[in-house]
Amino acid sequence: MEFRDRLQKDLQAAMKAGDVIKRETLRTLLAALTHAEVEKQGEFTDADLAAVLQREVKKRREAIEAYQAGGRKDLVDKETQELHILQTYMPKQLSPQEIEAVVSQIIAGLSAAGKPNLGQVMGAAMGKLKGQADGNAVRQVVAKLLQ
Question: What is the mean pLDDT of the chain?
């Protein structure tokens, strides 16, 4: 798997450079990938890889919010650095306009109208946009278009 090789090389470079934050972030990411592969017990696709990366990014964002609420600037800085490291490995994310175009097609295809169809549209949209867009960004677009 070429991505895992890239992570291993970057981990080795971080160890040689003495970059503790990057080293620990990459170790955590490698452990999460290994856990996901074992859990899946099948072929690990690019979409699975993107899902693991998104989960790790989401954890960092939630931790940043929690630490900000608790007034822990030192931990906010650490989590922010980890977030930036993880984002360098994320696949290209769609812009809000691109998300809106895809969601508009889904809404037209489902003939959905109004907030009661939010779950149905979200399910279809996340299936189509998996790994290409953050769930919160998709939710905002869906809610806006279904108003």
Answer: 86
